[in-house]
Design goal:
Strand content: 15-25%
Bound molecules: adenosine-5'-triphosphate, magnesium ion
CATH class of the largest domain: Mainly Beta
Structural class: alpha/beta
Radius of gyration: 31 Å
CATH architecture of the largest domain: Beta Barrel
Number of domains: 3
Number of strands: 27
Largest sheet: 7 strands, mixed
């Protein structure tokens, strides 16, 4: 393997360098705080690599904390999948998994503290009224008529909210900050709502749930987070993050730092939209290999190392982070190039009969699994009277410069002889069904006499090859920004050819590989045995990525 690549310096690393140098912190503590309301996507991978990567690089710790404050949308399936993803990417959280719900009791106590200080009140405005009172970007809000209740009354009402005396949505607890603030987040934000919902961890214990902004900063403080890294949309929430921590007695005050979200061309990075693809049956599930989810990328054959390298290359900054899919594919390809054993497979087979094949004369050769890695070993590449080649390696009327097979032309079979096509066999409809070729027996491991044969094609002995289902995946969308069109739905840009399933042939050595084994199929691309469907007696391969970036050319 390549030597580990050095980290790329960025502004958050500079903040940490300074905090460690000045002694502000002895060590750093970060966290990755997903909401278990969907599977993680490639954008989350960026955040995981950042938070866990910093902890690793600076000898600190990183927590995994579920932000489980929206019970209706959350599930243990999602929480499980997220833990699997973090570990698969190569990271391990410090200690136990944390849950915001672990702090529900403390969060409640802090709310009581805020009420006691006259900094929170129970409101009874309806959602519509609340919107109206909030004002707009250009207009100040106005105070709720319930804003000046006494501390005693607020304490009593809040306790009764918890006890279930009021119906869902009838009351909220709000911070008393400033309805005239230019920052709408500071206009008395709601921090608790009444919601009779079953929670994946606390069941039916709570009828009131804390809001994200309130929960997040306190959870960070309780865990001793030093640097709370989040995406830019939270920049305007930072004053609220700081306000809450400034007004309660918490052990520390983490620094929130924002960076830009990753947006990847030709896909969508929003759990809501990904969920739509799943529920509408446009993909086979969250782990469909076309999905930009970590589960999907894994099933497709992407490597954790490749994804981590991608995260390193795209960097961390506050400016737009729109990246072309080709960058991600390039990282995967580079990683697999060095790692994946190379074998032959035929995905659109055309039968070739070697007319002068003679078992006693025609010999097989052994071939190494990787030109730069002799330690990967070798295997025999058997030849027989009938072989498979790729349909598009033959052309009856070839274009200029054609180096593959044509009638009367010669080509070398990889790791084997030079053959010449003598005859084309067609069916009644005129389709080519078979080629009849002759072997030049004097070309095994040496050049033919008196002429040059430039083309080399891959092939398999029909007698030895094992059938395989091969899933050819392509990008899920045809547009670089499927969700960037005002007047069109992102689903209008689904690529109808994003999956083609073919029956092909593979070498026997790969048919018995364990699930999630990656290979290069020579001249075709990188393929991976399917995590779930590949079984003994039923080979199933997913195309991870082609050998070259053919997309730009084809589409352009
Ligand atoms: P989505 O918008 O896809 O639903 P989210 O932000 O609601 O994502 P969370 O579970 O809250 O999802 O995200 C967990 C962490 O991952 C957050 O810190 C969030 O900022 C970060 N994150 C989410 N999407 C991206 C992205 N595209 N690029 C970088 N970080 C991201
Ligand atoms: Mg979120």
């Amino acid at each position: 393997m390549n030597s580990p690549t050095p980290p790329v310096q960025h502004f958050i690393r500079t903040v940490i360098d300074n905090d460690l140098a000045s002694g502000k912190h002895g060590a750093i503590q970060t966290r990755f705080p997903p909401e278990p309301n969907g599977y993680l996507h490639v954008g989350h991978a960026k955040s995981i690599c950042l938070n866990f990567g910093l902890a690793q690089d600076f000898g600190g710790r990183c927590n995994l904390r579920f932000d489980d404050t929206n019970p209706e949308k959350e599930s243990t399936e999602y929480a499980q999948a997220i833990q699997e993803d973090v570990q698969w990417l190569g990271f391990q959280w410090a200690g136990e998994v944390r849950w915001a719900s672990d702090y529900f009791e403390k969060l409640y106590e802090y709310a009581v503290e805020l009420i006691g200080k006259g900094l929170a009140y129970v409101d009874e405005l309806t959602p519509e009224q609340m919107r109206e009172y909030r004002g707009t970007l250009t207009e100040k809000g106005k105070n709720s008529p319930y804003r000046d209740r006494s501390v005693a009354e607020n304490l009593d009402l809040f306790a009764r909210m918890r006890a279930g005396e009021f119906p869902d949505g009838a009351k909220t607890l709000r911070l008393k900050i400033d309805m005239a603030s230019p920052n709408i987040n500071l206009r008395d934000p709601v921090i608790y709502r009444i919601r009779r919902a079953h929670h994946i961890r606390t069941s039916d214990k709570w009828l009131i749930y804390p809001m994200y902004d309130y929960t997040h900063c306190i959870s960070d403080a309780l865990e001793g987070i030093t640097h709370s890294l989040c995406t830019l949309e939270f920049e305007d929430h930072r004053p609220l993050y700081d306000w809450v921590l400034d007004h309660i007695s918490v052990p520390c005050h983490p620094q929130q730092i924002e960076f830009s979200r990753l947006e990847l061309h030709y896909t969508v990075t929003s759990k809501r939209k990904l969920l739509q693809l799943v529920t509408q049956g446009l993909v086979s599930g969250w782990d469909d290999p076309r999905m930009p989810t970590i589960h999907g990328m894994r099933r497709r054959g992407y490597t954790p190392e490749g994804i981590r390298e991608f995260a390193r290359r795209i960097g961390i900054s506050k400016s737009e982070n729109v990246v072309d899919m080709a960058v991600l594919e390039g990282c995967i390809r580079e990683d697999l190039e060095a790692k994946a054993p190379r074998v032959m497979a035929v995905i659109r087979p055309l039968k070739v009969t070697l007319t002068n094949f003679e078992a006693s004369v025609t010999a097989s050769r052994s071939a190494g699994f990787h030109p730069n890695h002799p330690e990967f070993g070798e295997r025999d590449v058997p030849i027989a009277k009938e072989i498979w080649i790729e349909q598009d390696d033959f052309a009856e009327t070839p274009p200029a410069g054609w180096q593959r097979l044509t009638v009367g032309g010669e080509v070398r079979l990889r790791y084997s002889y030079v053959i010449k096509c003598d005859e084309v066999v067609k069916d009644a409809a005129g389709n080519v069904t078979e080629l009849r070729c002759s072997i030049d027996h004097d070309t095994l491991g040496k050049n033919p006499q008196g002429r040059k044969v430039k083309g080399v094609i891959h092939w398999l002995s029909a007698e030895h090859a094992v059938p395989a289902e091969i899933r050819l995946y392509d990008r899920l969308f045809t547009d670089p920004e499927p969700d960037g069109h005002k007047d069109r739905d992102f689903l209008d840009f689904i690529n109808p050819h994003s999956l083609e399933t073919v029956q092909g042939w593979v070498e026997p050595v790969v048919a018995n590989a364990a699930p999630e084994t990656r290979y290069q199929f020579e001249r075709l691309g990188y393929f991976c045995t399917d995590r779930f469907d590949h079984q003994p007696g039923k080979a199933v391969f997913n195309r991870t990525v082609t050998l070259k970036d053919s997309w730009a050319k084809e589409q352009g």
